[in-house]
């Protein structure tokens, strides 16, 4: 009897270990930016954008997060700032189209959870560089509410695409192929 109980405990322990070896990467576009000053190449988030940043925090509440990455633009940093403040995790800059960044992500521990904030023309190529199979090449300028979740285990990537916050997207036609 004791041996059976130990086997069951070991089995569930192994299941938890295997599950813990999945790396999760969430990729989002920055939230809505202020558009009133067309000469400003680094505008902050608008009121709606700040609300969306808070929606992202709420969406991921209760999820383990180990790393936050953002481009150096104010709008991308502000999108992940509520999570950074709540969890006391530093926001690390990354360069778009930097193969070393992809390599660094791939070399993170297998059970890492990562949030990356980018731009309409960069987040889908980034997801694809990490192994996601997505039918579109980039988002439109109106797409702010997509969150791409990549579950990476044993070099296999399972991609799910969802919306968060207020609906503000031009299409539901972004499909992932797993």
Q: Any overview of this molecule?
A:
The relative contact order is 0.19. This protein has a single domain (22-163), classed as Phosphoglycerate mutase-like (Rossmann fold). The protein is an alpha/beta fold. Helix 2 (47-59) packs across helix 3. Helix 3 links the parallel strand 2 and strand 3. Strands 3-2-4-1-5-6 form a 6-stranded mixed β-sheet, covered by helices on one side. It is built from 5 helices and 6 strands.
* Gyration radius from CA atoms, angstroms: 18 Å
Oligomeric state of the chains in view = single chain
The fraction of residues in strands falls at 15-25%
Low-confidence stretches: none
In one word, what is the shape?
globular
CATH topology: Rossmann fold
Q: Span from first to last CA?
A: 42 Å
Integer tally of domains: 1
The total count of strands amounts to: 6
Could you report the average pLDDT, rounded to the nearest whole number?
89
Report the sheet with the most strands, covering strand number, pairing sense and barrel closure.
6 strands, mixed
Give me the strand/helix succession.
HEHEHEHEHEE
Structural class comes to alpha/beta
CATH class: Alpha Beta
Task: Name the descriptors.
178 residues, alpha/beta, Rossmann fold, six-stranded mixed beta sheet, 5 helices, 6 strands, 34% helix, globular
């Amino acid at each position: 009897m004791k041996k059976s109980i130990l086997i069951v405990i070991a089995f569930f322990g192994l299941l938890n270990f295997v599950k813990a070896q999945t790396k999760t990467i969430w990729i989002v576009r920055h939230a809505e930016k202020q558009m009133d000053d067309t000469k400003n190449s680094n505008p902050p988030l608008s009121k709606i954008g700040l609300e969306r940043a808070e929606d992202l925090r709420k969406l991921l509440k209760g999820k383990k997060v180990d790393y936050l990455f953002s481009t150096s633009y104010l709008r991308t940093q502000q999108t992940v700032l509520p999570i950074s403040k709540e969890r006391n995790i530093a926001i690390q800059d990354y360069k778009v189209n930097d193969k070393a960044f992809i390599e660094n992500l791939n070399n993170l521990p297998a059970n890492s959870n990562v949030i990356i904030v980018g731009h309409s023309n960069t987040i889908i190529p980034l997801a694809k560089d990490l192994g996601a199979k997505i039918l579109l090449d980039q988002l439109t300028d109106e797409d702010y509410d997509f969150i791409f979740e990549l579950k990476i285990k044993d070099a296999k990537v399972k991609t799910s695409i969802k919306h968060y916050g207020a609906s503000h997207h031009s299409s539901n036609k972004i499909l992932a192929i797993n």
